[in-house]
Specification:
Oligomer: single chain
Strand order of the largest sheet: 1-6-11-10-13-7
Largest sheet: 6 strands, antiparallel
Structural class: mainly beta
Number of helices: 2
Number of strands: 13
Radius of gyration: 27 Å
Helix content: 10-25%
Distance between the termini: 92 Å
């Protein structure tokens, strides 16, 4: 099993095991479970409507994922934003549009973000000594999450950009100087023809 910067993948991706140490399990495409390790109990994470899930044991995503790290079958990811859970707050909602942090004691909530400027994205839910990575559609704007433990942060990783749909049409191309020269040459030919 290949270990990436201290992380060991321990989940199923699209139903196929990447690596499965003892105590690691997963259920479906939108749920994964970490093993405990170092005397800690594991955590189960769920993100509704994700298309792929992968859990990691070890350090947190912000310290260990780099552009060459393979997450969810792809490399080239960039950390777009991370919001640490707050010690206060009434719910577990993380709004990346307003930098609202969810309460770290809650075990469920909603993640809200506009990812339409990117080609690909995944959301991380971090708790205990592991985290779940969930590939999401960039056309969605909110996702329900659950965790068997209170979470420490949520983060969004992105890859690629999409051009905006509201680009104005290009300006009219000015007539090149050669066009004016051609017109004057044709006028000169017409004048000479009439003269002859």
């Amino acid at each position: 099993m290949k270990v990436l910067r201290g992380l060991a993948p321990v989940a199923f991706v699209t139903g196929m095991a990447l690596a499965a140490p003892a105590a690691a399990t997963t259920v479906g495409l939108d749920e994964c479970t970490t093993s405990g390790g170092n005397g800690n109990s594991g955590a189960t994470f769920t993100l509704v409507t994700s298309s792929m899930a992968e859990c990691f044991v070890g350090d947190n995503d912000a310290n260990t994922i780099g552009s060459t790290t393979n997450v969810l079958g792809m490399t080239g990811w960039s950390l777009d934003e991370k919001i640490d859970a707050a010690g206060t707050g009434s719910n577990g909602d993380f709004n990346f549009n307003t930098d609202q942090a969810g309460n770290k004691e809650t075990k469920s909530g909603k993640i809200i973000a506009d990812l339409s400027a990117f080609e690909f994205a995944f959301i991380v839910i971090k708790a205990g000594n592991g985290f779940g990575a969930f590939k999401v559609s960039v056309s969605d704007t909110s996702w329900e999450w659950t965790s068997s433990k209170g979470i420490s942060h949520a983060s969004i990783w992105t890859k690629g950009t999409t051009p905006p749909d509201n680009n104005p049409p290009p300006d009219a191309v000015p007539l090149p100087a050669g066009g004016a020269l051609l017109l004057s040459g044709l006028g000169l030919l017409a004048w000479r023809r009439r003269k002859a």
